[in-house]
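Quick one: structure for this chain?
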Amino acid sequence: MADDDFWVAEVIKQLDIKKGSLQRLWKEEQLYLKEVAEAQAQLDKLKQEGADGADVRNAAKIQQEAIKMVWRSRESTGQALRELNVFLDGSSGEELIMNTQSYQSALALSEEVTAASQAEINKRDASPSNV
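Got it. Here's what it folds into:
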């Protein structure tokens, strides 16, 4: 019984680490998406006001850098999601694990990120935007 407790504790610890990583990366991605929108608004404002060409180019450069960061963070988020899903799949069927709050919250996070990512893909496919 003590071996089971130790094993469960180790699995839960690893599950919490993977879940925490995904949460952090997902939040980071959302912040970068917000940054892209803000940079686009600033760029549009500068163009509309007829700002100096250097200011417009600088704003465009800032926006492009933000877009690059979105793509980088998406790669990291996707990797973290895949790792969490592999871990969850490997733990499925283990009632001692599946009945824990950690497993249930990790599963919910995985489903939330997957659904949001799919919605973002659908949105992106429907519009000509780069992000």
